[in-house]
Amino acid sequence: MTPANQLSKSFTYKSLISKSFKVTGRQVLPGFALSLGISLLFISLVLLLPLSGLLIQTAGMSWADYWAVVTDPRVMASYQVTLLMALGASLLNGLVGLLVAWVLVRYTFPGKRLIDALVDLPFALPTAVAGITLATLFSASGWYGQGLAKLGIQVAYTPLGILIAMLFTSLPFVVRNVQPVMEDLNSGDEEAALSLSAKDWTVFRRVIFPAIWPALVMGVVLSFIRSLGEFGAVIFIAGNMPYLSEVTSLMIFVRLQEFDYAAASAIASVILMASLLLLFAVNVWQTRYLKRLKGN
Amino acid sequence: MSIQIKQISKQFGDFQALKPLNLTINEGELVGLLGPSGSGKTTLLRIIAGLETADQGQILFSGKDVTQLHVRDRKVGFVFQHYALFRHMTVAENVAFGLDVLPKQQRPSKASIKQQVAELLDKVQLSHLASRYPAQLSGGQKQRIALARALAMQPRMLLLDEPFGALDAKVRKELRRWLRNLHDELGFTSVFVTHDQEEALEVSDRVVVMSQGQIEQEATPQDLYQQPASRFVYDFLGGVNVFEGEVCSTAGHSNNRLQQGKAWVAFPDGHKPQAGQLYLRSHELSLSNQPSATAHLPLTIKAVSLIGAEVRVELEPLDWQSPDLWEVVISHSHYNNWQPQRGDTCFAQPQAGQLFTKNKENQPLALNWTKEHLLIKTA
């Protein structure tokens, strides 16, 4: 399982609805203690322990050193590029992903199942493969690159290339979050709105959209977080020019190549904290929103 | 607003949901569409609303052809079985929806909308819930809010799809009386779908019984109960016992009887004996320890249940055949005097019934024994 896949599995919209666990009365199947124990152990070994290692490594640095490393001008420039491109990519994915999910849920057409399966491709494909493919496509002699060059747009080896790579790798987050919620929508709600003389667009805006909104936000945020840390797909197409098209994950890689593990960990910790904070904030917001919808 | 349905039909794939049918619903009438699931009643209601399009035929509202009119332009109030309240809006926002989405020129001011919503919530007696979300309401409250939301548009027609189907018995009863009162007060035309015959008979001015995409009978509740037009209607209204017999002319038997084996029912005076199925309602029979001069229907008691105002006795035919077990309702005083036990044998005495003869499918023969019974008793 790729890391991306794990992330998508553990943070789907639905798992958030029923996330409080409780053993009430006697359960049909035994083994609560055992299964919980194994799950916690696994999560600790695979997720928590490496993260702690990262933090411990940075703990060896003084505040001044830490601050100097994470605010280095070149690193700062990478934050800017990464954040801007990730924001652009996730917002675009929000639009496209919503459209794809809508088409997949609402219409039947030949090849629908194929397209449905293709949506997962970015999860399944090694990101390096994606990166090389994109770089070839968008290079000046590539299929897309040639056409775009005529319009005076250069994608490969520019920040725009970063955006394309991020778009590609994080599209499934939006589609797969929104799709199940859209499928569960009650057609009665739309009919009720129509019978109350609402226009098509009003029905979408005021009845359908509020119902899928939490899932969409979750999808966009996951897509954003995934883009923040994307490495494989990005570096092949980004050009990696200092101060211009270097992403933060590349900066970590550069520090590692210089055998400066502490500095690498320090930069990594910034991305980690940003991701965790964002995830946590969205979680809290979404739980509140859903509580209102589902009652207490 | 009156509704005229002309030759409407609808097919879903291979399934003929509605065979071409005609129906007229008068202005101000409260009509119940009654039938089992799959009878096409909901499809018909949805076609009236414009949520479904008919394959053929025409629909007229007050004489105006609306067949091609979109649901949003038909201006009908529609109430769904599962309420279809907007979960992310408060009760007040739900009720205000129809007014909020009006085009700017027609939309009332914010203050006016607020006032209308308050009035509607008052009408459905739920003003105190205005700021709640649907998830915090009970089923009965949700359905009343759904009604208030539909009423906000001041529709001249209200269509309700199994409006009380998902509610428990007590709330149902309460709500249908409330609906009846509301209908009388506001005077719109209402059509509601139900599979509950009691509900249809209690609430409606007129009941339309449907089966397999066709109208079986349209009549007032009284007429429907007294003169069911077909076996289906008789059956569907419930509590029916069937005795099928022939008229025998063999020696030793009277030829004035509907006979099956040793069991028989004599025809009342003035009726020509005919073979067929005799339909007897559970309260149009009495039970005794002795056969009478007019009937010999031996039965074994299978179960006795005391429910509310009456005692229900379940019986199995003794040495004759019936498609289902028989059910007879007796009074508590009769029960107390008689003390029937499971396994006891007793005899049924019909008072009134309908004979469905083999040749005339749709015209049952009404039979009544009460007079003769009295004559025999006094004799």
Offer a concise description of the structure.
The complex is a heterodimer of chains A (296) and B (379). By secondary structure, chain A is mostly helical.
Describe the structure.
The complex is a heterodimer of chains A (296) and B (379). By secondary structure, chain A is mainly alpha-helical. Chain A contains 15 helices and no strands. Mean pLDDT of chain A is 87; it is low at 1-11 and 13-19. Chain B has a 7-stranded antiparallel beta sheet with strand order 16-13-12-11-14-21-22. A 6-stranded mixed beta sheet of chain B has the order 6-7-8-3-9-10, sandwiched between helices. In chain B, strand 4 and strand 5 form a beta hairpin. In chain B, helix 3 packs across helix 4, helix 3 packs parallel to helix 5 (139-151) and helix 4 (110-123) packs across helix 5 (139-151). Chains A and B meet through helix 11, helix 12 and helix 15 of A and helix 2 and helix 5 of B.
Helices and strands in order, then pairings?
The complex is a heterodimer of chains A (296) and B (379).
Chain A: H1 3-10, H2 13-17, H3 32-59, H4 63-70, H5 73-106, H6 112-118, H7 121-124, H8 127-138, H9 143-150, H10 159-183, H11 187-195, H12 200-229, H13 232-238, H14 248-257, H15 261-294
Helix pairs in contact in A: 3-15, 5-10, 5-12, 8-10, 8-13, 10-12, 10-13, 11-12, 12-15, 14-15
Chain B: E1 3-12, E2 15-25, E3 30-34, H1 41-49, E4 56-61, E5 64-65, H2 71-74, E6 77-79, H3 91-100, H4 110-123, H5 139-151, E7 157-161, H6 169-186, E8 189-194, H7 197-203, E9 206-211, E10 214-219, H8 221-226, H9 231-237, E11 240-247, E12 257-260, E13 263-266, E14 276-281, E15 285-288, E16 295-296, E17 298-307, E18 310-317, E19 326-330, H10 332-338, E20 345-350, E21 352-357, E22 365-368, H11 370-378
Parallel strand pairs in B: 3-8, 3-9, 6-7, 7-8
Antiparallel strand pairs in B: 1-2, 1-4, 4-5, 9-10, 11-12, 11-14, 12-13, 13-16, 14-21, 15-20, 17-18, 17-20, 18-19, 21-22
Organism (chain B): Marinospirillum insulare
Domain ABC transporter (chain B): 3-237
Protein name (chain B): Sulfate/thiosulfate import ATP-binding protein CysA 1
